[in-house]
Amino acid sequence: MKAIVQRVTAASVMVGEEQISSIGRGLCVLFGISVVDTQKDVDYMVRKILNLRLFEDENGRAWSSSVMDRELEVLCVSQFTLQCILKGNKPDFHSAMPAELAQPFYNNILEQLREAYKPELIKDGQFGAKMQVHIQNDGPVTIHLESPAGPTDPKLLSKQEKQQQRKEKTRSKGPSESSREKAALRSKAAPSASSGAEGDVSSERDS
């Protein structure tokens, strides 16, 4: 999962001529949900968003308080285009979770945020609608988040396992002939190396 977190002085969402939601000072978060996201990704994002220290404390010290510390609002917006992969100049969104799956997944994110914080301070737009998102970025401060959970796609896991097996086989074979030859050449060159040549030898070892 990807998210763009912006510290704002105000933010709102319009659908057509209607204002769906708005907040004052706080965070505006754009979520891009991928086809491989799981509950682990949700847990990570909820924890990070609520605990990022993007605000000053009561003494004015910067980067010291989270949105929870200051009891500020959070506006969430589903943003599938964050999962864009460019094919030349054309955007491709196949890595984004399909809408019929993404909507309950996104609703789960909102529920988790509300359970971990104050429900009335978590606002959101309108899933699947064409929205106009008005953001007054404060700073500007913009943070890119990406959840670190590993892939759950069986094909990706199988590929990783094969790569690991190849690495293990390479280690078990020991040094190659070319490696042994290079080592022998270095050992021959070392005794006769002058102070000037030694610089060359050491640089070769470092390379």
Structure description:
The protein is globular and about 55 Å long. The chain is of the alpha/beta class. A hairpin with a 2-residue loop joins strand 1 (2-15) and strand 2. 23% of the residues are buried. It has two domains: 2-152, D-tyrosyl-trna(Tyr) Deacylase, Chain: A, CATH 3.50.80.10; 156-206, no CATH class. It is built from five helices and eight strands, in the order E-E-E-H-E-E-E-H-E-E-H-H-H. Belongs to the DTD family.
What's a concise summary of this model?
This protein has five helices and eight strands, in the order E-E-E-H-E-E-E-H-E-E-H-H-H.
Figure out the total of helices: 5
Q: In CATH's first tier, which class of the largest domain applies?
A: Alpha Beta
Distance between the termini: 38 Å
Q: Uncertain runs with pLDDT below 50, 5 residues or more? A: 191-207
Count of the domains: 2
Mean pLDDT: 83
Oligomer: single chain
| Assigned CATH superfamily of the largest domain | D-tyrosyl-tRNA(Tyr) deacylase
How many strands in all? 8
Helix fraction by DSSP (H/I, runs of at least 4)? 25-40%
Shape: globular
The gyration radius over C-alpha positions equals 26 Å
The name of the CATH architecture of the largest domain is 3-Layer(bba) Sandwich
CATH topology of the largest domain: D-tyrosyl-trna(Tyr) Deacylase, Chain: A
Catalytic activity: a D-aminoacyl-tRNA + H2O = a tRNA + a D-alpha-amino acid + H(+); glycyl-tRNA(Ala) + H2O = tRNA(Ala) + glycine + H(+)
Protein name: D-aminoacyl-tRNA deacylase
GO molecular function, one term: tRNA binding
Enzyme class: hydrolase
